[in-house]
Amino acid sequence: MKILTLNCGSSSVKYMVYDWDKKQIMCKGLVDKIGCTGICTLQHDVLGRDTFKKEFGCPTHQEAIQCVFDILVDQEHGVLKSIKEIDAVGHRVVHGGEKFTKSVIVDEEVIESILEIQELAPLHNPYHIMGIRAVQKLIPGVVNVVVVDTAFHQTMKPPQFLYALPYEWYEKHKIRRYGFHGTSHLYVSRRAAVLLGKDPSEVNVITLHVGHGVSITAVKNGVCFDTSMGLTPMEGLIMGTRAGDHDTAIALYMMKEEQLSPREVYDILNKKSGILGITGKYTDRRDVLKSMEEGDERCRLAVEMEAYRIKKYIGSYTAALGRVDAIVWTAGVGEMSSVIRAKAMEGLECMGIIFDPEKNELAKSRNAEFDITGPGSKVKIFAIPTDEELVLVEDVVALCEKRYDVYTNFTYSFQDPNYRNEMRYEEFQKELQNNPKMAKALAKVPGWGESGSAMGAV
Predict the structure, then answer these.
(1) Among the three residues 89, 120, 155, which one is the final residue of a domain in this structure?
(2) 107 is annotated as an active-site residue
(3) Residues 337 and 213 in one domain
(4) How far is the C-alpha of 185 from the C-alpha of 188, rounded, in Å?
(5) Residue 38's pLDDT is what?
(6) CB 28 within 8 A of CB 389
């Protein structure tokens, strides 16, 4: 069985083809800048081959997905003889409201349910539907499955998911906390359980998905107990362009002072705040950190603010869980930025959280899992590259085989201590070859590379 996964954003499409029978990634890639300038960029990776890149005209998601299909069957760069080899397609959907507690096979009722709440995720849900419609047109009859980010967080209870607002708002409009990045939090929390040598039901972890969007989740006995994002992905931590937590009266005040409409304020909070709002020019933390080192005080302020907000949430979720077995960093910044990790964890010794500065500095890869726990720490600290696409694949296959269940009753292949992502393993070996200093340093770390070790590449 061959599964295609699609993650359609406002201007991008991430894809992967997975051979379920061989348990192997056949290829993965990204189409970027859809509809921005008329010219898109495609990056296509196949196991054992060099990365292929190209530019092409791409005004809509349908052209982008057509380009993906074309590259999949290309004689030189493709991995399929025919697009009909694809047995099913898994689509990531950001917001499912209360309707979806698990992944489902797409029908018109499912599409209508996603469209009904598209205003709660305007940068995502409409484009997810575009992706589904494009696949339906280009591969008629293929099974489409939606894997919903909010499903993982449906285990939260009313004290955690309700707001102190008129209760009728929840009854009539379903105003509540939903949470996002669910597939990522699911994956890394299950991997953390493996690295701890425990069943997920025995583990309490705090998972930090820190990328352009940022969320933190308290996972209690293997299920979501609380999470930072709310009705929409704007609540919680400081993000690339989103404000995160702030006094809601600010919006009303600024509407009056600057004569702004509700839509204008919404766009500012969603697209012009966060790291961009503080620095005035950057969203990418690499740019922010570089400018900070060069003396840019606004960039320094942005890093300090982001780290402080993360630290506050770690503290509050530690109190909420009572016992924390591990803290897990993931996504682009969480996996790669030793500076932000360090600033967010400094001073948490009182909670038994101690990181190793040297190990933290070494942990800069999106292809390997790292244990960065310091001596004497009561809490394990991991940097684990997320793999939302694999969660999509496994849910799709299980639905097709009629053995799927809610995640609390479902066991994934990556929960096996011997699991290894071959494409990531290959990429990490290249990283070590190109970085002898890192390879030499890692060789000195006890347990590095051992089967099942938290310091092994996966």
Answers:
(1) 155
(2) no
(3) yes
(4) 5
(5) 64
(6) yes
308-360 confidence digits (pLDDT tens): 999 999 999 999 999 999 999 999 999 999 999 999 999 999 999 999 999 99
140 and 187 both lie in a single domain: no
Domain count, the chain: 2
pLDDT at residue number 108: 92
pTM score, whole prediction? 0.91
Per-residue pLDDT tens digits for 359-400: 999 899 988 999 999 999 999 999 999 999 999 999 999 999
The token pair that represents 458 in the structure block = 């996966």
Q: Which pLDDT score, from 0 to 100, does residue 333 have?
A: 94
Domain end point (choices 155, 190, 220): 155
**H-run or E-run covering 268:** helix 262-271
Confidence tier at 453 by pLDDT (50, 70, 90):
very low
> Residue 255 domain-assigned?
yes
Q: Can you list the pairs that 80-85 forms with residues at least 24 positions away whose Cβ atoms lie under 8 Å? A: 80/2, 80/17, 80/26, 83/138, 83/139, 84/139, 85/2
- Which domain does 380 fall in, by range? 182-386
The one catalytic residue in 45, 149, 371, 395 is 149
* Average pLDDT for the chain: 91
One domain, residues 129 and 234? no
User: 292 in a domain, yes or no?
Assistant: yes
Q: How far apart are CA 314 and CA 126, in angstroms?
A: 33
Based on the domain organization, do 136 and 187 belong to the same domain? Answer: no
- The answer to whether position 392 is within a domain reads no
Mean predicted confidence (pLDDT) in 203-208: 98
